[in-house]
Amino acid sequence: MNQLSKTEQVLKEMRQYLIDILVLSETRWTGNGLEKFSDGYVMAYSGHPSVHRAGVGLLMSPLAHKAMTNWNPVNERIMTARFVSNHTKMTIIACYAPTNEADEEEKDAFYNMLHSVTKDVPRHDVLCVVGDLNAKVGADRQYCPEVLGPHGMGEINENGTLLIDYALSNDLIIGGSMFDHKTIHKYTWICGNCSGDYEVGRQCISLDCPVMYKRKSFEVGLKDAKLFFYILEDL
């Protein structure tokens, strides 16, 4: 999404669905900074210094931007932002994990940094870790009931194991597994040559789940986790 015109399309959807904060993964923007758009919308972004690869961003409505107190562009795969209102303090970690086929060193580096960033979040903040985590956590809740809900899907992969370990060690839950939705509202990616049968094609399906602290009340903190599909051409 390294074209500003594409960002304007996303902003149009934000306005339509009344979204105040939207995390973007694989933006492919270089460097880091704040980009201002029409109507007071702002994007904080963090990317590679010179190469158009990876990248994460946080699009904010004027209201959300006003509530943001600070942000930290960690690297091309991780950034954080903190928001303060009259009722609560919230930190969002936006991330873009390496694919399941990536080198072990790359995966380890990502999760080591993610662990470090998470540990620095103020203890009493509501924490949301959101982004393209390139993971399948599977449908077997008994694998890790402290982290997984009853509505996971498919079979766990290596990245799913890494994600669950990260969530468990940081007192997080995987929000996408907590709520009962139609299959199409649980998966975020299907390979182009899949038949459309989710069971047959599940090895080509990716579930990229937001996670959230259990320190705050789960019922109050996370009302739902549901996917909506929107396609931009030639991102």
Automatic annotation (TrEMBL):
InterPro entries, alphabetized: Endo/exonu/phosph_ase_sf, Swc5/CFDP1/2
Alphabetized PANTHER family for the sequence: BUCENTAUR RELATED, CRANIOFACIAL DEVELOPMENT PROTEIN 2-LIKE
Official protein name in the record: Craniofacial development protein 2-like
Lineage: Eukaryota, Metazoa, Ecdysozoa, Arthropoda, Crustacea
